[in-house]
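Lecture notes, unit on protein representations.

Consider one protein chain, 485 amino acids long.
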Amino acid sequence: MERGEKRTAEWWLPDMNPEDAVPGTYEVTENGQVRVELHRALPNQGLEDLFSNEDIEYPLIHGAAFGLPVTLINSRAIGRKASLTSRHVNTTLRPWVAVEGIRLNHGELCLTDATVRVENQDLWDNYDSFRPSALRKSGFPSTFTYTPLQTEIAEIPGGEISVEDASAYHPQGSNLSLQSRSKFKLKFDKEVSFEDFAKRHIRSLLLMMTAATGRDCGVLEVRCTSSEWVVKGERHPGDRWVIMRVGKSSQDTKPLSIHDLLFNLGDLDWKTQAPHFFDITDEWAYPIELWASLASSKLFWPLARFANSVQAVEALDRILYPAAPFTPDTELAERVNEALKEAHFNKVVRSKVKESLLRPREASLDARMTRLAERVSVAMEALVGEHAWEQRIARLRHVASHGLEDAEQFVGDTRAPEVATEVLLHLLECLFLERVGFTPTRIAELQERRSSSGYRKLIVHEYLPLLDAFSASRSVKPNSGESQS
């Protein structure tokens, strides 16, 4: 089925007789999501369910969409309409995954091979499969040479991955189109559940593309098969692949060129660097969620973006520099408490001091940013020079997060949090490149090459001095040796 297509369908639960199927529809929306409608209630769906506010979820539904076998997995009801005087019911479902081409049972929701295509992948691979090999005197090509893309195979936990050619040839009457395209091909040593595949492998590929493009990237196409599937008592043919509808595309139509990318396929030593993208998905899970939110067009408020970027940097620092085991010095705390008591300090003050001594001391925000920046110093110095930007941004976060008097300036002028966000984004990008195997010098080169580099340098040069106003403000300054959270 193509995106934007809607078919009549019949639906039933795995333990039902297909002859008792419920009529409905099956639709693939323009952004790749699946929408299902049931025109009658399924057997376990009573009127009390239809008129309640409780969520209805079906772990597995089988169907036939105009003859196409379909499996719906973890389908949630997002809309229900029913009549008290007739059997007519209309329930709208949104499945987590829809598999087109086969009806699977609970023990078969696994795969051994898959191909994935992600938004902006054809730009990222930076490869032309079709090249003119002969030109007429007019300059018009008379022949094209097709050279398919193929990378080395990289080993990942439990399997392997490569980038392969997926180019297309479309003759349409008097028109002819040649499309250079690629796909990620994954092969596993043993079956991988759909859930693990989506949460780990597809997520890792989306992370790779989002980091490269700086924007939220979605899934274009997933095809899969399993050597363990059984159909009508026989082993599933290895060359029979089905379509898996999972996730959605972002449909971001803003123009993007190869010069906008932080890195492309040609920049990678695929065999050695590709596995890092799968490792980092688990290792940096929380900071990645925060960082990815900055790539979404939905998060456009400057203060919210600044807060997310600070959180991402702090979370990443805690991962890279985990706190050492802390053993409180209770004897020291008691001695200090007695000394304060003798000096006639009240109980409230003594309790606060004692609690402070017994609490682990955490690195300050500026200390965290300083040690992170040292890891990628070449690229950071190219952007901010030798300015003490860490202390400035830490002070700005203190003002913004606590709503101090100077925060009122943000109502009409958000340039300070905007420039701070750009600096922190630069830091996060550089640390990501370091983690996936690029050297400090190469990281600086990749940042400098990107078309947005000049704009980022310009606003940092012009607006970074604005942070000085908050450093010398009337705000209460936290001790630089303590956490400012």
